[in-house]
Amino acid sequence: MFKGAFSIWGRDMLVLRRSIISELVSVIAYPLTLYLAFGFGLKGYITDVNGVPYPLFIAPGLISMTAVNAAFDESSWSMWFHRKVQRTIEEYRVTPVTVYDIVIGKIFSGFSQGAVKGTVVFLVILLLTPFRIEYAHLPMYLLCIALSSMTFSCLGTICGTVIDKPENIGRVQSVVIVPLIFMAGIFFPLSSYPPSILPLIQLLPTTAVFEGARDALLTGAIPSQYLVNLVLSAALCFTIAVYTFNRKMAE
Amino acid sequence: MTHAITLHDITKSYDGFTAVDEFSLEVQRGTVFGLLGPNGAGKTTLIKILTTLMRPTLGDAFVEGHSVLTAGKEVRRMIGVVPQENNLDRYLTARENLALHAKLHGMRPAAYNPRIDELLDMTGLAARQYDFPDTFSGGMQRRLVVARALVHEPRVLFLDEPTTGLDPQSRRSLWDHIRGLRRSMTVFLTTHYMDEADALCDRIMIMDHGKTLADGTAGELKDAFSRAHTYQVEFRRDADRYQGVLAGLPFVKGVERDGSLFQITLADEESIKPLMDHLTGPDIRRICLKEPTLEDVFISLTGEKVRE
User: Is the ipTM of this complex over 0.90?
Assistant: First the structure.
Protein backbone atom coordinates (compact mmCIF):
# COMPACT_ATOMS: atom_id res chain seq x y z
CA MET A 1 0.00 0.00 0.00
CA PHE A 2 1.17 3.52 -0.90
CA LYS A 3 4.13 2.03 -2.79
CA GLY A 4 3.33 4.52 -5.56
CA ALA A 5 3.34 7.40 -3.07
CA PHE A 6 6.74 6.24 -1.84
CA SER A 7 8.09 6.12 -5.43
CA ILE A 8 6.85 9.65 -6.15
CA TRP A 9 8.28 10.91 -2.87
CA GLY A 10 11.56 9.12 -3.73
CA ARG A 11 11.66 10.93 -7.07
CA ASP A 12 11.20 14.31 -5.37
CA MET A 13 13.89 13.56 -2.81
CA LEU A 14 16.30 12.52 -5.58
CA VAL A 15 15.71 15.85 -7.32
CA LEU A 16 16.13 17.69 -4.00
CA ARG A 17 19.43 15.88 -3.32
CA ARG A 18 20.75 17.02 -6.68
CA SER A 19 20.14 20.68 -5.98
CA ILE A 20 20.48 20.65 -2.20
CA ILE A 21 23.30 23.20 -1.99
CA SER A 22 21.63 25.89 -4.10
CA GLU A 23 18.27 25.18 -2.44
CA LEU A 24 19.71 25.55 1.04
CA VAL A 25 21.67 28.69 0.27
CA SER A 26 18.51 30.41 -0.92
CA VAL A 27 16.43 29.04 1.93
CA ILE A 28 18.91 29.97 4.66
CA ALA A 29 19.58 33.48 3.42
CA TYR A 30 16.11 34.86 4.14
CA PRO A 31 15.50 33.79 7.77
CA LEU A 32 19.13 34.37 8.66
CA THR A 33 18.91 37.93 7.35
CA LEU A 34 15.73 38.48 9.35
CA TYR A 35 17.35 37.01 12.44
CA LEU A 36 20.41 39.20 12.11
CA ALA A 37 18.43 42.31 11.18
CA PHE A 38 15.74 41.98 13.84
CA GLY A 39 17.59 39.98 16.48
CA PHE A 40 20.63 42.19 16.52
CA GLY A 41 19.27 45.36 14.98
CA LEU A 42 16.43 45.68 17.50
CA LYS A 43 18.28 44.14 20.44
CA GLY A 44 19.18 47.57 21.73
CA TYR A 45 15.54 48.67 21.64
CA ILE A 46 13.80 45.43 22.68
CA THR A 47 15.88 43.64 25.23
CA ASP A 48 13.36 40.96 26.02
CA VAL A 49 9.75 39.94 25.50
CA ASN A 50 7.97 38.51 28.51
CA GLY A 51 11.37 37.79 30.00
CA VAL A 52 12.71 36.06 26.89
CA PRO A 53 15.71 37.70 25.13
CA TYR A 54 14.49 39.07 21.79
CA PRO A 55 16.81 36.98 19.54
CA LEU A 56 15.61 33.87 21.38
CA PHE A 57 12.01 35.07 21.11
CA ILE A 58 12.09 35.29 17.28
CA ALA A 59 14.35 32.31 16.48
CA PRO A 60 11.77 29.48 16.87
CA GLY A 61 9.32 31.38 14.67
CA LEU A 62 11.91 32.00 11.96
CA ILE A 63 12.83 28.33 11.88
CA SER A 64 9.15 27.36 11.71
CA MET A 65 8.54 30.00 9.04
CA THR A 66 11.31 28.47 6.91
CA ALA A 67 9.78 25.02 7.29
CA VAL A 68 6.20 26.02 6.47
CA ASN A 69 7.25 28.29 3.59
CA ALA A 70 9.36 25.50 2.11
CA ALA A 71 6.51 23.02 2.52
CA PHE A 72 4.04 25.36 0.84
CA ASP A 73 6.44 26.33 -1.97
CA GLU A 74 7.41 22.78 -2.79
CA SER A 75 3.87 21.44 -2.76
CA SER A 76 2.22 24.24 -4.68
CA TRP A 77 4.84 24.80 -7.37
CA SER A 78 5.70 21.15 -7.75
CA MET A 79 2.07 20.12 -8.11
CA TRP A 80 1.39 22.94 -10.58
CA PHE A 81 4.56 22.23 -12.57
CA HIS A 82 3.93 18.49 -12.79
CA ARG A 83 0.28 19.02 -13.69
CA LYS A 84 0.45 21.94 -16.12
CA VAL A 85 3.99 22.19 -17.49
CA GLN A 86 5.68 18.82 -17.42
CA ARG A 87 2.41 16.86 -17.39
CA THR A 88 4.07 14.09 -15.42
CA ILE A 89 0.92 13.76 -13.30
CA GLU A 90 -0.71 12.38 -16.45
CA GLU A 91 2.15 9.91 -16.81
CA TYR A 92 1.69 8.78 -13.19
CA ARG A 93 -2.06 8.38 -13.81
CA VAL A 94 -1.65 5.85 -16.61
CA THR A 95 0.28 3.54 -14.27
CA PRO A 96 -1.39 1.35 -11.62
CA VAL A 97 -0.88 3.97 -8.88
CA THR A 98 -4.00 5.69 -7.58
CA VAL A 99 -4.69 9.41 -7.29
CA TYR A 100 -4.28 8.94 -3.52
CA ASP A 101 -0.73 7.67 -4.09
CA ILE A 102 0.05 10.76 -6.15
CA VAL A 103 -1.37 13.35 -3.78
CA ILE A 104 0.04 11.67 -0.67
CA GLY A 105 3.45 11.36 -2.33
CA LYS A 106 3.39 15.05 -3.17
CA ILE A 107 2.19 16.10 0.29
CA PHE A 108 4.99 14.12 1.91
CA SER A 109 7.51 15.69 -0.47
CA GLY A 110 6.42 19.13 0.68
CA PHE A 111 6.51 17.99 4.28
CA SER A 112 10.01 16.55 3.85
CA GLN A 113 11.30 19.70 2.19
CA GLY A 114 9.90 21.76 5.06
CA ALA A 115 11.44 19.48 7.65
CA VAL A 116 14.87 19.39 5.95
CA LYS A 117 15.04 23.13 5.34
CA GLY A 118 13.73 24.01 8.80
CA THR A 119 16.33 21.74 10.38
CA VAL A 120 19.14 23.28 8.36
CA VAL A 121 18.11 26.82 9.29
CA PHE A 122 17.95 25.70 12.92
CA LEU A 123 21.50 24.33 12.71
CA VAL A 124 22.80 27.44 10.98
CA ILE A 125 21.26 29.75 13.58
CA LEU A 126 22.71 27.50 16.26
CA LEU A 127 26.14 27.62 14.64
CA LEU A 128 26.34 31.31 13.81
CA THR A 129 24.54 32.94 16.71
CA PRO A 130 24.41 32.74 20.50
CA PHE A 131 20.94 31.11 20.20
CA ARG A 132 20.87 28.00 22.42
CA ILE A 133 18.13 25.60 23.38
CA GLU A 134 17.34 22.92 25.90
CA TYR A 135 17.74 19.71 23.87
CA ALA A 136 15.18 17.90 25.98
CA HIS A 137 12.62 20.28 24.45
CA LEU A 138 13.49 19.25 20.91
CA PRO A 139 10.98 16.39 20.42
CA MET A 140 7.97 18.63 21.09
CA TYR A 141 9.42 21.31 18.87
CA LEU A 142 9.94 18.81 16.06
CA LEU A 143 6.36 17.59 16.50
CA CYS A 144 5.19 21.17 16.10
CA ILE A 145 7.32 21.62 12.96
CA ALA A 146 6.06 18.31 11.52
CA LEU A 147 2.39 19.20 12.00
CA SER A 148 2.94 22.71 10.63
CA SER A 149 4.82 21.45 7.59
CA MET A 150 2.05 18.94 6.94
CA THR A 151 -0.61 21.66 7.10
CA PHE A 152 1.26 23.98 4.75
CA SER A 153 2.21 21.17 2.41
CA CYS A 154 -1.49 20.31 2.10
CA LEU A 155 -2.38 23.97 1.54
CA GLY A 156 0.27 24.14 -1.19
CA THR A 157 -1.06 20.96 -2.76
CA ILE A 158 -4.56 22.45 -2.84
CA CYS A 159 -3.23 25.62 -4.52
CA GLY A 160 -1.14 23.66 -7.03
CA THR A 161 -4.16 21.52 -7.85
CA VAL A 162 -6.82 24.16 -8.35
CA ILE A 163 -4.78 27.11 -9.64
CA ASP A 164 -3.89 27.01 -13.32
CA LYS A 165 -2.06 30.34 -13.71
CA PRO A 166 1.31 30.49 -11.93
CA GLU A 167 0.96 34.17 -11.06
CA ASN A 168 -2.09 33.29 -8.97
CA ILE A 169 0.00 30.96 -6.80
CA GLY A 170 2.30 33.95 -6.15
CA ARG A 171 -0.77 36.03 -5.28
CA VAL A 172 -2.01 33.47 -2.78
CA GLN A 173 1.42 33.52 -1.17
CA SER A 174 1.56 37.29 -0.86
CA VAL A 175 -2.11 37.87 0.02
CA VAL A 176 -2.82 34.87 2.25
CA ILE A 177 0.30 33.04 3.41
CA VAL A 178 2.64 35.95 4.18
CA PRO A 179 0.00 37.96 6.15
CA LEU A 180 -1.00 34.82 8.07
CA ILE A 181 2.65 34.29 9.00
CA PHE A 182 3.40 37.87 9.97
CA MET A 183 0.13 38.34 11.92
CA ALA A 184 0.91 35.31 14.05
CA GLY A 185 3.46 36.92 16.32
CA ILE A 186 6.84 35.87 15.01
CA PHE A 187 8.35 39.27 15.78
CA PHE A 188 6.09 40.56 18.55
CA PRO A 189 4.07 39.13 21.44
CA LEU A 190 0.38 38.46 20.82
CA SER A 191 -0.39 40.65 23.80
CA SER A 192 0.31 43.60 21.50
CA TYR A 193 -3.04 42.99 19.80
CA PRO A 194 -6.16 44.75 21.07
CA PRO A 195 -8.13 42.37 23.32
CA SER A 196 -11.06 42.41 20.87
CA ILE A 197 -8.92 40.93 18.05
CA LEU A 198 -6.76 38.60 20.11
CA PRO A 199 -9.18 35.61 20.25
CA LEU A 200 -9.39 35.61 16.44
CA ILE A 201 -5.62 35.79 16.08
CA GLN A 202 -5.23 32.89 18.50
CA LEU A 203 -7.46 30.77 16.28
CA LEU A 204 -5.20 31.18 13.24
CA PRO A 205 -3.29 28.00 12.39
CA THR A 206 -0.17 30.11 11.95
CA THR A 207 -0.50 31.36 15.53
CA ALA A 208 -0.56 27.76 16.67
CA VAL A 209 2.51 27.13 14.49
CA PHE A 210 4.64 29.98 15.80
CA GLU A 211 3.42 30.31 19.38
CA GLY A 212 3.35 26.53 19.70
CA ALA A 213 6.90 26.28 18.34
CA ARG A 214 8.18 28.98 20.67
CA ASP A 215 6.54 27.39 23.71
CA ALA A 216 7.76 23.96 22.69
CA LEU A 217 11.33 25.14 22.34
CA LEU A 218 11.38 27.30 25.46
CA THR A 219 9.30 25.16 27.84
CA GLY A 220 9.23 21.71 26.26
CA ALA A 221 5.43 21.68 25.97
CA ILE A 222 2.93 22.81 23.33
CA PRO A 223 -0.09 24.51 24.94
CA SER A 224 -3.11 22.24 24.43
CA GLN A 225 -5.13 24.83 22.49
CA TYR A 226 -2.30 25.15 19.96
CA LEU A 227 -1.68 21.41 19.81
CA VAL A 228 -5.36 20.75 19.07
CA ASN A 229 -5.30 23.53 16.48
CA LEU A 230 -2.20 22.05 14.81
CA VAL A 231 -3.60 18.51 14.71
CA LEU A 232 -7.02 19.60 13.47
CA SER A 233 -5.53 21.94 10.85
CA ALA A 234 -3.23 19.21 9.54
CA ALA A 235 -6.06 16.63 9.42
CA LEU A 236 -8.53 19.04 7.81
CA CYS A 237 -6.04 20.33 5.21
CA PHE A 238 -4.97 16.77 4.38
CA THR A 239 -8.59 15.72 3.82
CA ILE A 240 -9.34 18.75 1.68
CA ALA A 241 -6.12 18.31 -0.34
CA VAL A 242 -6.86 14.66 -1.12
CA TYR A 243 -10.51 15.42 -1.95
CA THR A 244 -9.60 18.40 -4.15
CA PHE A 245 -6.96 16.49 -6.08
CA ASN A 246 -9.28 13.53 -6.56
CA ARG A 247 -12.02 15.83 -7.87
CA LYS A 248 -9.64 17.67 -10.19
CA MET A 249 -8.36 14.43 -11.67
CA ALA A 250 -11.91 13.21 -12.28
CA GLU A 251 -12.76 16.31 -14.36
CA MET B 1 -11.16 -13.91 -26.10
CA THR B 2 -9.41 -12.55 -29.15
CA HIS B 3 -10.21 -8.87 -28.62
CA ALA B 4 -7.69 -6.74 -26.78
CA ILE B 5 -9.95 -3.69 -26.80
CA THR B 6 -13.74 -3.51 -26.79
CA LEU B 7 -15.87 -0.39 -26.66
CA HIS B 8 -19.61 -0.61 -26.09
CA ASP B 9 -21.64 2.45 -27.13
CA ILE B 10 -19.21 4.92 -25.60
CA THR B 11 -20.50 8.48 -25.36
CA LYS B 12 -18.57 11.38 -23.90
CA SER B 13 -20.21 14.78 -23.55
CA TYR B 14 -19.09 17.91 -21.80
CA ASP B 15 -20.87 21.23 -21.55
CA GLY B 16 -23.41 20.24 -24.19
CA PHE B 17 -20.72 19.13 -26.66
CA THR B 18 -20.60 15.47 -27.64
CA ALA B 19 -16.98 14.49 -28.32
CA VAL B 20 -17.71 10.78 -28.79
CA ASP B 21 -21.15 9.57 -29.78
CA GLU B 22 -22.25 5.96 -29.14
CA PHE B 23 -18.93 4.64 -30.38
CA SER B 24 -18.41 0.88 -30.54
CA LEU B 25 -15.27 -0.96 -31.54
CA GLU B 26 -13.43 -4.25 -31.18
CA VAL B 27 -9.70 -4.49 -31.79
CA GLN B 28 -8.15 -7.87 -32.46
CA ARG B 29 -5.29 -8.87 -30.19
CA GLY B 30 -1.80 -8.58 -31.72
CA THR B 31 -2.76 -6.13 -34.45
CA VAL B 32 -1.87 -2.52 -35.15
CA PHE B 33 -5.09 -0.51 -35.19
CA GLY B 34 -5.11 3.02 -36.58
CA LEU B 35 -7.69 5.64 -35.67
CA LEU B 36 -7.76 8.54 -38.10
CA GLY B 37 -9.72 11.74 -37.97
CA PRO B 38 -9.34 15.50 -38.22
CA ASN B 39 -8.69 17.69 -35.16
CA GLY B 40 -11.59 17.44 -32.75
CA ALA B 41 -12.85 14.17 -34.22
CA GLY B 42 -12.76 12.50 -30.78
CA LYS B 43 -9.60 10.40 -31.13
CA THR B 44 -7.79 11.71 -28.06
CA THR B 45 -11.00 11.54 -26.01
CA LEU B 46 -11.25 7.86 -26.89
CA ILE B 47 -7.64 7.24 -25.89
CA LYS B 48 -8.20 9.08 -22.60
CA ILE B 49 -11.22 6.88 -21.89
CA LEU B 50 -9.33 3.71 -22.76
CA THR B 51 -6.37 4.70 -20.58
CA THR B 52 -8.71 5.60 -17.64
CA LEU B 53 -7.74 9.27 -17.71
CA MET B 54 -11.36 10.15 -18.45
CA ARG B 55 -14.65 8.46 -17.63
CA PRO B 56 -17.23 8.02 -20.38
CA THR B 57 -20.61 9.68 -19.93
CA LEU B 58 -22.31 6.51 -21.16
CA GLY B 59 -21.19 3.03 -22.13
CA ASP B 60 -18.19 1.00 -21.05
CA ALA B 61 -14.86 -0.02 -22.54
CA PHE B 62 -12.71 -3.06 -21.85
CA VAL B 63 -8.97 -3.53 -22.21
CA GLU B 64 -7.88 -7.16 -22.10
CA GLY B 65 -11.25 -7.90 -20.51
CA HIS B 66 -10.99 -5.29 -17.75
CA SER B 67 -13.57 -2.54 -17.53
CA VAL B 68 -12.27 1.04 -17.54
CA LEU B 69 -15.12 1.90 -15.17
CA THR B 70 -14.70 -0.76 -12.53
CA ALA B 71 -11.15 -2.12 -12.95
CA GLY B 72 -9.09 0.96 -13.81
CA LYS B 73 -6.04 -0.26 -11.94
CA GLU B 74 -6.06 -3.58 -13.82
CA VAL B 75 -6.47 -1.73 -17.12
CA ARG B 76 -3.48 0.46 -16.29
CA ARG B 77 -1.35 -2.62 -15.53
CA MET B 78 -2.01 -3.84 -19.07
CA ILE B 79 -1.32 -0.65 -21.01
CA GLY B 80 1.54 1.54 -22.14
CA VAL B 81 0.78 5.07 -23.23
CA VAL B 82 2.63 7.44 -25.54
CA PRO B 83 0.75 10.73 -25.22
CA GLN B 84 0.55 13.47 -27.84
CA GLU B 85 3.01 15.64 -25.93
CA ASN B 86 6.25 14.35 -24.45
CA ASN B 87 5.64 14.29 -20.69
CA LEU B 88 9.13 13.28 -19.66
CA ASP B 89 10.50 14.36 -16.32
CA ARG B 90 13.19 16.89 -17.20
CA TYR B 91 14.76 16.66 -13.74
CA LEU B 92 15.46 12.95 -14.12
CA THR B 93 17.94 11.36 -16.53
CA ALA B 94 16.67 9.16 -19.34
CA ARG B 95 17.39 6.05 -17.28
CA GLU B 96 15.77 7.49 -14.16
CA ASN B 97 12.65 8.32 -16.18
CA LEU B 98 12.36 4.66 -17.14
CA ALA B 99 13.18 3.46 -13.62
CA LEU B 100 10.50 5.68 -12.05
CA HIS B 101 7.93 4.32 -14.48
CA ALA B 102 8.98 0.77 -13.57
CA LYS B 103 8.65 1.54 -9.85
CA LEU B 104 5.18 2.97 -10.40
CA HIS B 105 4.34 -0.39 -11.96
CA GLY B 106 5.62 -2.10 -8.84
CA MET B 107 8.68 -3.61 -10.57
CA ARG B 108 11.80 -4.46 -8.59
CA PRO B 109 15.30 -3.31 -9.65
CA ALA B 110 16.29 -6.87 -10.53
CA ALA B 111 13.43 -6.97 -13.03
CA TYR B 112 13.53 -3.45 -14.41
CA ASN B 113 17.27 -2.86 -14.80
CA PRO B 114 17.86 -5.50 -17.52
CA ARG B 115 14.62 -4.44 -19.23
CA ILE B 116 15.73 -0.80 -19.24
CA ASP B 117 19.12 -1.81 -20.71
CA GLU B 118 17.31 -3.70 -23.44
CA LEU B 119 14.97 -0.80 -24.26
CA LEU B 120 17.75 1.78 -24.26
CA ASP B 121 19.64 -0.40 -26.74
CA MET B 122 16.53 -0.89 -28.86
CA THR B 123 15.84 2.84 -29.06
CA GLY B 124 19.48 3.78 -29.59
CA LEU B 125 19.62 5.81 -26.37
CA ALA B 126 22.03 3.66 -24.36
CA ALA B 127 24.88 6.13 -24.79
CA ARG B 128 22.71 8.99 -23.52
CA GLN B 129 21.01 7.20 -20.62
CA TYR B 130 22.58 9.43 -17.97
CA ASP B 131 21.65 12.66 -19.77
CA PHE B 132 18.57 14.73 -19.09
CA PRO B 133 15.77 14.70 -21.69
CA ASP B 134 16.06 18.47 -22.19
CA THR B 135 19.34 17.85 -23.99
CA PHE B 136 17.71 15.41 -26.44
CA SER B 137 16.38 16.12 -29.92
CA GLY B 138 12.62 15.80 -30.51
CA GLY B 139 13.09 12.37 -32.07
CA MET B 140 15.18 11.11 -29.17
CA GLN B 141 12.66 12.37 -26.63
CA ARG B 142 9.90 10.61 -28.54
CA ARG B 143 11.88 7.37 -28.58
CA LEU B 144 12.42 7.71 -24.85
CA VAL B 145 8.66 8.15 -24.30
CA VAL B 146 8.06 4.99 -26.34
CA ALA B 147 10.73 3.13 -24.34
CA ARG B 148 9.11 4.29 -21.11
CA ALA B 149 5.72 3.00 -22.26
CA LEU B 150 7.29 -0.42 -22.90
CA VAL B 151 9.24 -0.86 -19.64
CA HIS B 152 6.57 -2.98 -17.95
CA GLU B 153 5.90 -5.01 -21.12
CA PRO B 154 2.31 -3.87 -21.67
CA ARG B 155 -0.16 -5.97 -23.60
CA VAL B 156 -1.74 -2.94 -25.26
CA LEU B 157 0.21 0.10 -26.39
CA PHE B 158 -1.59 3.40 -27.04
CA LEU B 159 0.20 5.84 -29.31
CA ASP B 160 -1.48 9.24 -29.64
CA GLU B 161 -0.05 10.94 -32.74
CA PRO B 162 3.39 9.51 -32.02
CA THR B 163 5.31 11.15 -34.86
CA THR B 164 3.77 14.63 -34.91
CA GLY B 165 6.52 17.21 -35.20
CA LEU B 166 9.29 14.76 -36.03
CA ASP B 167 11.61 15.03 -39.01
CA PRO B 168 11.29 12.32 -41.70
CA GLN B 169 14.28 10.33 -40.42
CA SER B 170 12.96 10.25 -36.87
CA ARG B 171 9.50 9.28 -38.15
CA ARG B 172 10.92 6.36 -40.12
CA SER B 173 13.00 5.27 -37.15
CA LEU B 174 9.93 5.31 -34.89
CA TRP B 175 7.94 3.41 -37.50
CA ASP B 176 10.59 0.70 -37.41
CA HIS B 177 10.18 0.39 -33.63
CA ILE B 178 6.40 0.20 -33.94
CA ARG B 179 6.66 -2.42 -36.68
CA GLY B 180 8.92 -4.41 -34.37
CA LEU B 181 6.12 -4.52 -31.77
CA ARG B 182 3.57 -5.98 -34.17
CA ARG B 183 2.23 -9.37 -33.00
CA SER B 184 3.94 -9.10 -29.59
CA MET B 185 1.29 -6.65 -28.39
CA THR B 186 -1.77 -4.81 -29.57
CA VAL B 187 -1.04 -1.29 -30.80
CA PHE B 188 -3.74 1.39 -30.85
CA LEU B 189 -2.52 4.36 -32.85
CA THR B 190 -4.00 7.73 -33.71
CA THR B 191 -2.41 9.80 -36.42
CA HIS B 192 -2.94 12.63 -38.87
CA TYR B 193 -0.50 11.13 -41.32
CA MET B 194 -2.11 8.90 -43.92
CA ASP B 195 1.22 7.43 -45.01
CA GLU B 196 1.85 6.44 -41.41
CA ALA B 197 -1.48 4.65 -41.13
CA ASP B 198 -0.94 3.07 -44.53
CA ALA B 199 2.53 1.84 -43.57
CA LEU B 200 1.82 0.60 -40.06
CA CYS B 201 -1.80 -0.38 -39.53
CA ASP B 202 -3.46 -3.73 -40.06
CA ARG B 203 -6.80 -2.02 -39.72
CA ILE B 204 -7.84 1.60 -40.02
CA MET B 205 -10.89 3.39 -38.75
CA ILE B 206 -11.75 6.92 -39.85
CA MET B 207 -13.87 8.92 -37.41
CA ASP B 208 -15.28 12.41 -37.26
CA HIS B 209 -17.65 14.23 -34.91
CA GLY B 210 -17.34 11.32 -32.50
CA LYS B 211 -18.65 8.71 -34.94
CA THR B 212 -17.17 6.06 -37.22
CA LEU B 213 -17.11 6.93 -40.90
CA ALA B 214 -15.17 4.01 -42.36
CA ASP B 215 -13.43 0.88 -41.17
CA GLY B 216 -11.16 -1.67 -42.87
CA THR B 217 -7.64 -2.32 -44.08
CA ALA B 218 -5.93 0.45 -46.03
CA GLY B 219 -6.56 -1.52 -49.24
CA GLU B 220 -10.24 -2.06 -48.45
CA LEU B 221 -10.78 1.60 -47.69
CA LYS B 222 -9.10 2.64 -50.93
CA ASP B 223 -11.21 0.16 -52.87
CA ALA B 224 -14.46 1.11 -51.21
CA PHE B 225 -13.90 4.80 -51.73
CA SER B 226 -12.05 4.37 -54.97
CA ARG B 227 -12.37 7.21 -57.38
CA ALA B 228 -12.25 4.74 -60.28
CA HIS B 229 -14.04 7.25 -62.46
CA THR B 230 -11.54 10.03 -61.87
CA TYR B 231 -9.05 10.56 -64.68
CA GLN B 232 -6.06 12.78 -65.11
CA VAL B 233 -5.77 14.31 -68.55
CA GLU B 234 -2.83 16.46 -69.67
CA PHE B 235 -3.26 18.52 -72.85
CA ARG B 236 -0.57 19.54 -75.28
CA ARG B 237 -2.53 22.62 -76.39
CA ASP B 238 -5.91 24.36 -76.16
CA ALA B 239 -6.27 23.73 -72.43
CA ASP B 240 -8.49 26.82 -72.03
CA ARG B 241 -10.84 25.67 -74.78
CA TYR B 242 -11.05 22.17 -73.29
CA GLN B 243 -11.90 23.63 -69.90
CA GLY B 244 -15.00 25.20 -71.43
CA VAL B 245 -15.88 21.98 -73.28
CA LEU B 246 -15.55 19.85 -70.15
CA ALA B 247 -17.64 22.26 -68.10
CA GLY B 248 -20.49 21.83 -70.56
CA LEU B 249 -20.57 18.02 -70.57
CA PRO B 250 -23.46 16.63 -68.44
CA PHE B 251 -21.61 13.48 -67.34
CA VAL B 252 -18.59 15.43 -66.02
CA LYS B 253 -19.15 15.90 -62.29
CA GLY B 254 -16.03 17.84 -61.47
CA VAL B 255 -12.99 19.42 -63.08
CA GLU B 256 -9.85 20.48 -61.23
CA ARG B 257 -7.19 22.22 -63.29
CA ASP B 258 -3.50 22.79 -62.66
CA GLY B 259 -2.07 24.42 -65.80
CA SER B 260 -2.55 21.95 -68.62
CA LEU B 261 -3.26 19.06 -66.23
CA PHE B 262 -6.94 18.32 -65.55
CA GLN B 263 -8.45 16.00 -62.98
CA ILE B 264 -11.85 15.00 -64.33
CA THR B 265 -14.44 13.19 -62.21
CA LEU B 266 -17.05 11.39 -64.28
CA ALA B 267 -20.58 10.42 -63.26
CA ASP B 268 -19.77 6.73 -63.82
CA GLU B 269 -17.25 4.48 -65.48
CA GLU B 270 -19.30 4.30 -68.70
CA SER B 271 -18.82 8.03 -69.23
CA ILE B 272 -15.22 7.52 -70.36
CA LYS B 273 -16.29 6.74 -73.93
CA PRO B 274 -18.41 9.87 -74.51
CA LEU B 275 -15.61 11.86 -72.85
CA MET B 276 -13.09 10.57 -75.35
CA ASP B 277 -15.49 11.51 -78.17
CA HIS B 278 -15.14 15.16 -77.11
CA LEU B 279 -11.35 15.13 -76.92
CA THR B 280 -9.10 15.23 -79.96
CA GLY B 281 -6.37 12.62 -79.81
CA PRO B 282 -3.33 14.72 -80.84
CA ASP B 283 -4.21 17.37 -78.24
CA ILE B 284 -3.79 14.89 -75.43
CA ARG B 285 -0.31 14.40 -74.00
CA ARG B 286 -1.46 11.66 -71.57
CA ILE B 287 -4.58 10.28 -69.95
CA CYS B 288 -4.65 7.99 -66.92
CA LEU B 289 -6.89 6.61 -64.24
CA LYS B 290 -6.19 8.30 -60.89
CA GLU B 291 -5.29 5.75 -58.23
CA PRO B 292 -6.86 6.68 -54.87
CA THR B 293 -4.69 7.32 -51.82
CA LEU B 294 -5.71 6.95 -48.21
CA GLU B 295 -5.66 10.73 -48.07
CA ASP B 296 -8.28 10.85 -50.84
CA VAL B 297 -10.45 8.53 -48.78
CA PHE B 298 -9.90 10.65 -45.67
CA ILE B 299 -10.70 13.94 -47.41
CA SER B 300 -13.74 12.53 -49.16
CA LEU B 301 -15.11 11.38 -45.79
CA THR B 302 -14.18 14.28 -43.55
CA GLY B 303 -14.23 17.18 -46.02
CA GLU B 304 -11.56 19.71 -46.97
CA LYS B 305 -12.51 22.43 -44.55
CA VAL B 306 -9.79 23.24 -42.00
CA ARG B 307 -10.83 22.51 -38.40
CA GLU B 308 -10.08 24.81 -35.50
Answer: no
